[in-house]
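Apologies for my clumsy wording, but could you write out the amino acids of a protein and the tokens describing how it folds?
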Amino acid sequence: MSNHQKIVLASNNKGKLAEFEYLFQQLSESEQHLQLEIIPQGQLNIDDAVEDGLSFVENAIIKARHASRLSGLPAIADDSGLVVPILDNAPGIYSARYAGEHGNDAANNQKLLQELLPFRAENPQITGLFVCVLAMVRHADDPLPILCHGIWHGEILAEAKGEQGFGYDPLFWLPELGKSSAEMAKAEKNQISHRGMAMQQLKQHLLELSGKYWQVY
């Protein structure tokens, strides 16, 4: 990999873009020899891919290939969501469109609260987990995408708490910290979140690629 590498970030989600911007800034500061130029796909007029996979892994790869094919550059994609075991692992890969309209956080949170109401009496502490899968392709037809994942365990609150973050953050409770994900500072969240965990793995892969050719397959 050359000292300066352009990579497309396959997302138009403002919340995710803000978190990735922070995470890649931290990476650049800690690994100054690794100069990455991260370009959100929206800057290249690339629309969202059709996410018709059946898993976080499939959808992450679909999005990465889509952005890479249209840009001609390596691409990184995130597919993430909230998994609630008591709801048969819903909302899962449909987290962003759980209530029908893609990206409507308020509606998605309200639907989750309604779906959990029948379980609250017998299950005052309902467990949940955030899942993140990152896929990186060096080119659109890369036969060996790099995959990284993170899983963040917590509980699902009966009412929202906090104003930070996005998505289901106000309902995701960290009992060991005594706060919700939406009550955490950005730096604190990114150190322990599902996306932060996946980014740490990706960092290692990027360091290993440093000095090598990207399109080696």
In short: The longest strand covers residues 126-137.
